[in-house]
Amino acid sequence: MSKFLSYYNLFPIPDPKEFLGMAADKDIGNVITTLARNVVVILNISTHKQLYSWSMPEKLSAKVVYDPNSQKYVGVFGNHALRIWDVTTTDVSKCKKLKFQKSIAHVVENDREAIVLYSDGFFQCLSKALESRKDQKEDTAEQLALAANNTISKPTVHTLTNGQQVLTYFMAKNATGEFLLQRHFLVNNQRRNYFIKREGVRLTGHAVIEGDAGPQLMTIWSDKRIFMLSLAERSHESSPGQFVSMLAELNVESKLSLQGLSRNFVAIYGANYGQEGASLLVYNTQFKVVNAKQYFKVYLDFSRLWARDEHILLAMGQHIAAVRYRMNDELLVDMLGSQLNETQLAPIELDHINEEESLEAAIKFGGHARTQIRTVKRSKPTNQLLAEVPKSDGIAIAFESPEVSQQQLNDLIKQHVGGEIVQVDNGIDDVNVTLMRNFFDTGPQNVAVQSIVRQLERSGAGEQEISEKLLTLFIKTENTEHVLMCVRRYTNISEHMLAWCLRYALDNTPTNSLTNGNDMDTDENNVQTAPANDELLNAVLACSFNSVAIEKHLKQRLELSHVQRLLKHLYVLASDSDALLEERPNQDAASLGSMCTELQAFQWLGALITSHITLLTISKDEELLASLTQWSELFQIYSNMLDPLSTVMPALHQILARRQRRNPYPTHWYGIERVKLY
User: Fold this and answer.
1) Is 117 left (phi over 0), alpha (psi -120 to 50) or beta?
2) How many CB atoms lie within 10 A of CB 413?
3) Which of 141, 214, 427, 669 has its CA 20 to 30 A from that of 657?
4) 587 CB-contact burial (10 Å; exposed 0-12 / middle 13-18 / buried 19+)
5) Band of residue 391 on the pLDDT scale cut at 50, 70, 90
6) How far is CA 47 from the centre of its chain?
7) Is the Cβ–Cβ distance between 439 and 415 less than 8 Å?
């Protein structure tokens, strides 16, 4: 599952027609931007700062790239010359102009050495091209005509799993109107052409992306169809490949921009239907689903996409935008729906979805006349339901009852397997195990709600979609019990729904709330004194979230009174050793027993303070000041506890350095000493 975290404008573009493109720099987080044919700028994506810039003496014909072999920047001038410089160069015109007889289309970036791609499709490594440039005897007029006729775009080098590298690029032949993809293996120069064409439809978007078995050609056509073509060495498929899906989220009549992000993920930018703005999608080519979507108010026909680190760079109109995204570890349950077994059905639900139940029941009865079907009902992980069952003493009652044994078995499966036995029919072959998420998830108690939940889970919807629909329904109807059920049942809950659930829990939790959502205090008459809303508050606080993504939602949902109460509650969680949040699976650890209440409280505190920093600064409330003072004193205690470790760390590094294995056969058999003579 992927999420868009932030969006901002990175840099303006003076003239979109003169913009040549972007390439990766030597440092992580930097990007080489060829803003115009005579202006090159190196930008830092995170800080938005301009690090270096050069004004070119002549017009560039392709974007500037970085060559890791020579550790210098390479620019193509007029299709027939190269200039090479580094960060210390102030005037590029003073760098030597290296002329070529052959027409150069692009210099392709590569993690080993930059590649010079000529207009006729021939390519060389930069070092070899510089050595052989004087041996070129091509006709100048022929090379000019070749450059005018062949338009090469999107040259990319892909590295296969076996270490081989493949060069791919698109070529448009202006004279004949043909459009094709060329694939070259860098080792043996094996070439293959793929002519991209379908009768009666128009190509609206294309790109080469990373797949499971290697690079793949992805094309989107004016009939909404998406085709995928494997570019592996032994693949014999013909273009455009296999039809895999339909794109219904964007208007395919307009031009689409595609860019591969990582394996099986591609970014798509295009116009919305009705020409009302545009959208940026993250599309999963393996499961054919849209993972994330970013809206824009205006659609611009001029658009190009690049991917750098955790950012999607979108050049549209007269500015460059950066969209930061995150790829989660969990994929299947987020994109394909829940993994619940369809055999766990209530009788009323069978009536709703199965019209042939009576006939099936009669057939089952006729075939298994002596079989007694027993369903083990789900229950809370407590012993209250089994209080009336007598325990075995070895004399009057020899064995534990089946109910007790079944309850103990379910508890063990929940803790160690992550599942639950839901039905036992005729023996071991008929034991059905349902995968589940949370040990404390008891499922919907209402039959109607249970039917809705099961239908959504079997429909193939993802956890985020299901949780948003159900939580919106239950919060608006003030159904606290089922809000708690959703928070415990689903792991991938969006940040804005978590903020809404937090507001709902604070509004419905008394001020004298407890901190342990599972163990409620009782009075002398064994009567529970805390409502279920306190349990909901702690269940929400136990959920995993992204601090950056949730800040704006906390700012919208929580007021000063909520912030004050939450600061007090989090302080108790962080300072009281008896205050524990319930264990639950999260995106970082899929097993129980990994929840640290203190760290979770600190993470919520950081997001809360960052989202309400202005309100906390200008507020003169004495109660709020007292809460912040308590937190300051707590952090001072932690600081004092960690201070002695400053002397331990150097000693530890020194011990490890001495324990490292040394080479018994050193390469240097001599030593040099500098002696000062008086």
Assistant:
1) beta
2) 16
3) 669
4) middle
5) low
6) 22
7) yes
